[in-house]
Amino acid sequence: MLVINYRLKQCDSDTYGLKWNNSRLFDLRFADNIALISEDANGLQKSTNQVKEVMEKTGLRYNANKCKVMLMGTTGTEIKIEEEKLEKVNNFLYLGSTISQDGTSSKEIRRRIRKANSAFGRLKNIWQLKNISLKTKLNMYKATVITITTYSNETVKVPSPL
Which H helix or E strand runs over 27? Predict the structure, then answer.
């Protein structure tokens, strides 16, 4: 990870990325995941090429099969690594949350409700046990179902009709 951070600092992040106050947001990083950000497809292609070049200096390389592209507000544009086209997606899972092309959180909210429903169902046997107090059962419910439902809710945009 230190090598990746070191190499990404060598990228021209003042030219590419999203304007953010008086600087530019070029990428989001977590462990070995990197999300490149750009205001347009041309900038995304240039930053993809630049990241590829600086990573290769260290012996690292892109795996185009693991790379995904999500473009907003544009169609027909293709992002490539060398001559290989990257797969276009309408949404993807990043750090446990669904990011959608349309900018809404409806899919993420539905996904969390399904996961919480599943966790609730797995607790069915616990609810029927007589030797576990109601307080303990409620604590288990809060620790599983509520936690799953509310995980990183600060990033969720609540739509009018869900």
Answer: strand 27-30
CA distance 119 to 152: 17
Residue 35 CB partners (closer than 8 Å, separation 6+)? 27, 28, 29, 94
Dist CA 91 CA 23 (whole Å): 27
How far apart CA 99 and CA 108 sit, in angstroms, is 8
Contacts within 8 Å (CB) and 24+ apart, 23-30: 27/51, 28/94, 29/4, 29/5, 30/95
Which contiguous run of DSSP H or E holds residue 88? Answer: strand 87-88
In tens digits, what is the pLDDT along the chain, a chain of 162 residues?
566 666 666 666 666 677 778 777 777 777 777 788 787 888 888 888 888 888 888 887 778 888 888 887 776 788 888 888 888 888 877 777 777 887 777 888 888 889 999 999 999 999 999 999 999 999 999 999 998 888 766 666 665 655
At residue 63, what is the residue type? N
